[in-house]
Amino acid sequence: MARRYFTPKLFAFLRDLEENNDRVWFKANQETYETYIREPALDFINDFTAPLHKISQHFVTDSRTVGGSLFRIQRDTRFGKDKTPYKLNTGMQFRHMMAKDVHAPGFYLNIAPGECFMGVGLWRPETKHAYAIREKIDADPAAWKRATRSKRFTDVFSLEGESLVRPPKGFDADHPLIDDLKRKDFIASTRLTQKEVTSDAFLEQFTENCKKAVPFIKFLCEGVGVPF
Q1: Taking the CB of residue 179, how many other CB atoms lie within 10 A of it?
Q2: In sequence order, what are the residues at sequence separation of 6 or more whose Cβ sits closer than 8 angstroms to the Cβ of residue 188?
Q3: Which end of the chain is more exposed for a tag (fewer CB within 10 A), N or C?
């Protein structure tokens, strides 16, 4: 059954938070955060469980309030110059069951004023996993092209992320897929509108987009040696 999870009040809260990013204001307005952001996000996560398991049994939804699919709104201010205590977005990630942290294949949703998007793939894998993916691209370029160049994929997603300046060790600069082999991030994203995010069809749209990324995610899973 179609259901509307997120409303314009989510975006209004985050805009107000940008203007009042301090603990006193947040504490005074925490009920609004719970009502229009955290509770709907946890409901979205729970309701995505069945659709996600139809895509793959190896990815998980986790509606725990701490350590689950929903990222905390509190920022880690220990090491950065920016000491504002709260993030200005709502982020959710649906990770591979074998992932120990965010550096594993997954599906990601970001909701923020003017910055709504969903992402798929593997952000900044450790060196050995990056090389494993590169070796798979080199060994099976046709599968990589099908995963990243098919119209079904490119109609929705665009590859992005940072790349090495020079070819990675063991690969020639004239390799036909050198631009892909130089990637440090194996990710793709698609922008979303506020209208889409606040629609009662958003869960269905998000699910369909995830399905279109299956060959890409499967390729990365095979590259790093985890089941899809």
Answers
A1: 10
A2: 119, 120, 121, 148, 153, 157, 158, 159, 160, 213, 216
A3: N
Domain 8-71+81-224 has CATH 3.30.930: yes
Dihedral-angle region of residue 22 (phi above 0 means left; psi in -120 to 50 means alpha; beta otherwise)? beta
139-172 pLDDT per residue, tens? 999 999 999 999 999 999 999 999 999 999 999 9
- Residue 100 pLDDT > 80, yes or no? no
CA dihedral 119→225→103→126, nearest 10 degrees, is: -130
pTM, rounded to two decimals? 0.93
The answer to whether the CB of 140 falls within 8 A of the CB of 218 is no
31-70 pLDDT per residue, tens: 999 999 999 999 999 999 999 999 999 999 999 988 899 9
Cβ within 8 Å of residue 161, ≥6 positions away: 123, 183, 184, 185, 186, 187
